[in-house]
Amino acid sequence: MTDFPMPSDASRKPSKSSLLVADARTRKRNAAEKRFRAYGAGAIAIAMLALVILLTTIIGGGAGAFRQTYLSIPVALDAEVLDPKGNRDPAEMSKVLTLSYGRVLDAAVVEAVKANGIEIDGLTPKDMSGLISKEASAQLRNRVLADPELLGQTVDVNVLVNGRVDGYFKGRVTMESAAADGNTSPEQLKLANVLKEGGMLVTRFNWDFVTNPDASDQRPEAAGVGVAILGSLYMMLVVLFLAVPIGVAASIYLEEFAPKNRWTDIIEVNISNLAAVPSIVFGILGLAAFINFAGLPQSAPIVGGLVLTLMTLPTIIISTRAALKAVPPSIRDAALGVGASKMQSVFHHVLPLAMPGILTGTIIGLAQALGETAPLLLIGMVAFVREFPGAPLEGLFDPATALPVQIYNWTQRADPAFIERASGAIIVLLVFLLCMNVLAVILRRRFERRW
Amino acid sequence: MPLSWALIASLILAIAGYFAARGRAFAAAGPDIRRLHSRPTYHGYSVALTTLAPALAIMVIASFLRMTGVLAEQAGAYVGLVVTAAAVVGLVWGLTRIGIEYKARNTVERIVLGLLILCSTIAILTTAGIVLSLVFETGHFFQKYSWTEFFFGTNWTPRFQGNSNLGVLPLLWGTLYISLIALLVAVPIGMFAAIYMSEYASKRVRGIAKPAIEMLAGIPTIVYGLFALITVGPMLRDYFAQPLGLGNSGASVLTAGLVMGIMLIPFVSSLSDDIINAVPQSLRDGALGLGSTPSETIKQVVLPAALPGIVGAVLLAASRAIGETMIVVLGAGAAARMSLNPFEAMTTITVKIVSQLTGDNDFAAPETLVAFALGLTLFVITLALNIVALYIVRKYREQYE
Amino acid sequence: MYDTNRLENAVGQDDIKISARKVQVFYGDKHAIKDVDVDIQDKTVTAFIGPSGCGKSTFLRCINRMNDTIPIARIEGDIKLDGEDIYDKRVDPVQLRARIGMVFQKPNPFPKSIYDNVAYGPRIHGLSRNRAELDEIVERSLRGAALWNEVKDRLQEPGTGLSGGQQQRLCIARAVATSPEVLLMDEPCSALDPIATGQVEELIEQLRQEFSVVIVTHSMQQAARVSQKTAFFHLGNLVEYGDTDDIFTKPQDSRTEAYISGRIG
Ligand SMILES: Nc1ncnc2c1ncn2[C@@H]1O[C@H](COP(=O)(O)OP(=O)(O)OP(=O)(O)O)[C@@H](O)[C@H]1O
Ligand SMILES: [Mg+2]
Which of A27, A90, B219, B257 has a Cα at 20 to 30 A from A130? Predict the structure, then answer.
């Protein structure tokens, strides 16, 4: 210690300067500091910008799905054609195909154009009848079958307009693109313009998008997410009734009862790895185990629900265990101290206190499951389904589709109108997710507890 | 469905058993309820369980036998009868056991504990199921297709008529290339975002930015996929690929990589946030006390200290990227290609799993079975990444505990 | 309350290194330091003593603006280093902290090699022109912290691998390496055994030749051994300040007397 050499004067140079002026090196370092901060702020800005662009393009593109153009015209329901036997028997009448209704409608459109004295160069009858959706005849047929008394009368009907014409009013189709498109013509669009001015064509809110089933390639205007919503709902029910009890039970065992040994270690490692297994692998499992091995039907919500259950189990277990861990040991000790068994202390005291945490975790797990697509593709949920599934429990085995899969399905169609439908379905999906997350936040706020 | 009727019948019997048992327990106790070993409700539960358990067990075994084909479909009605009979027997047997001495609570607790254990093994069963189904079908595949050609083949051209080339390398290349781009986007942005939020941001900024980034995490991947398809892809094509003469495809490695990167930002940032916050404050104080600026503290002290954790986080993100499906299905394209041009469409393992397994599957054809081999490859890669990452992260946490 | 006049008479105005006037610190609503006036002399060891929670660390951290890193902390009054207000808007805390170093209660070596730990300060402040100079600073600082002989063969090993006492001396070496003018030490010996404590105390005595040292300690003996000046804090107030000998032999305030004789604290 005697030879302790003090720092030389040379190295003490900076200390003689005033504190009030920053030296060159400090200025440089502060500039670096500012740059670093700017990178951080930039990263946040990029992330938020990405979010905003993503949401605005999707919502902007999908809002159109909630508005649809309808044509209202008087239609003379010719009893000769629509009820050849003339006895108004629904069974007999249902033998008449939509094709006949289509002809009646086509005639009505041509008639309406004439009656309004509209004249446009080059406008063909095909242009006129092509104005309305191919789905319109089926809608008219359903209406007549439901109320045979309408036959022989001239009724005002509101029919869906062809997707191109609808797209014209939404800005998707232009006169130029129509000229190049075999499915529509500029004359048809001009006619639509005139009809719009005359108030016969109206674009209004389209509740049918939420309630209708899917429609075929040619009829984007009629496609809706009804079956998909129901299918998703069924799957969520399966997940709720399987994943939650099983997940909570497993967490209780692992957190409260399991001895610390090899076996529980294996289970723990297993769960954390399972949480990171790609979702598509669960789809393969579902295909191999539930469909090929167990013989459950393809496209059924029960299979989707089972796959999603297995997928969300790790999420639920992890969050439930965190919630159980957050309950202080003093509460368990207090219960044991008054003579409760271990089981009683857990079920009567620990579990109720952990409930809010468990619920939040469950909702987040469900939200994850609701948005999951890939595994459902493999178990056949991508099939074209127009029939609503029946009521549970049997309905769980009927073919159905799910919201995210319906979105994927629509992205694979040729007509760009389906992109609008896909974006619209995303809005529906996001609304559901938002509600679930808000619920989770409310629960967390409401029951947040400090011991 | 006779089985569901049998199920309902057993449930009703169980409920009846519960009340009957409680009544009997009260009766057995006489005026002094404390003479009972267990509270009457436990007697109720115990009988309900002895009624349900055998019935359910028989149902499960019967359904399993049906699946494996030992039992014919028509046997359902008989199974239903057997199930109901078992429930009745269980009910009667349970009721005869009730008495002052009967330790109903212990029985119930033992059964419940058994159920809890059963539930906790489902995770293991799931893993076993995954491994079994993958390995089993992959075995079938390799009987029909040479494994060397699968693992080392550079050509992917499945054909309906057979005689397909099913080399995994182009798919692996696409997967890794896209994942790399995704990580190049997500890791710096996610980490800087986490650093900014934990070290610099004011309360107000954090109050806006944090939920926004969490929102990115809550958006389903199909939404990102559509975003890639209708926005990012066309934009990259029109403003970069075509003017630069690099390609004409909207679907491309870069499209999928960019969008996947955005998807991974919240994942990386929340992991980094945890990791950065695990670095003890005393280290920061030490550096600040020596006169380093906050950024020097972060770069030279906090990040090196957090390095193992960050490596773990990046590996986890990589495993996510490799296993991601919907974004690549919609954004990357379907062409199996090994090229360096990021504006070209390429494809990944997950895309091919989807395309080989959707539609009409012929489980005897190598073109279908190859999906299982792809699935196994994917599973092994992600599992390896996860195990290493979780190990590193855990070691890192222990270091500061 | 001690008498400022008496203090100013006793100490020549020009060797005052740090002078604090009417310093107040608030943590949110909590008033942690109340109206503290103190003058710390150059080339002197000043000890802060007082019961736990009385604000010693808080006041110490005000001197190099470490409290800036606590969002809820608010500081009033002024503190001057060589006559310049350190809380002036133009002052860069980074530059300030290079001149007023700090050693913390718990050893906090960076997860880097021993060499890099010591070289950290000189590197960020650009105190060396080349590797040789840096080597020299590292060696000098480690010798100064009485650690050189123990670590000279393992400079590239991680600093976290040292024993607690060695780690604390490493932290002192790290602080010394930036050649500060004032060294603040917050209970530097609380994690050390008597031998290491002795070494650190000897080191403090050496350091006094060049800098002014302020040390917070709970050990009255240590304060008596190493310091020339002692300040006694109680509930956020500076109760008494003066020559160490005077404080320990004839305290003016009854609270000081009670504390040093072990009745409060
Ligand atoms: N970061 C902080 N936030 C809020 N209050 C604080 C903070 N740091 C210290 N305090 C409070 O300020 C008061 C003084 O604390 P300080 O750490 O300065 O005491 P001390 O004299 O150093 O005690 P010890 O001898 O135990 O280290 C205490 O009441 C403490 O609770
Ligand atoms: Mg202290």
Answer: A90
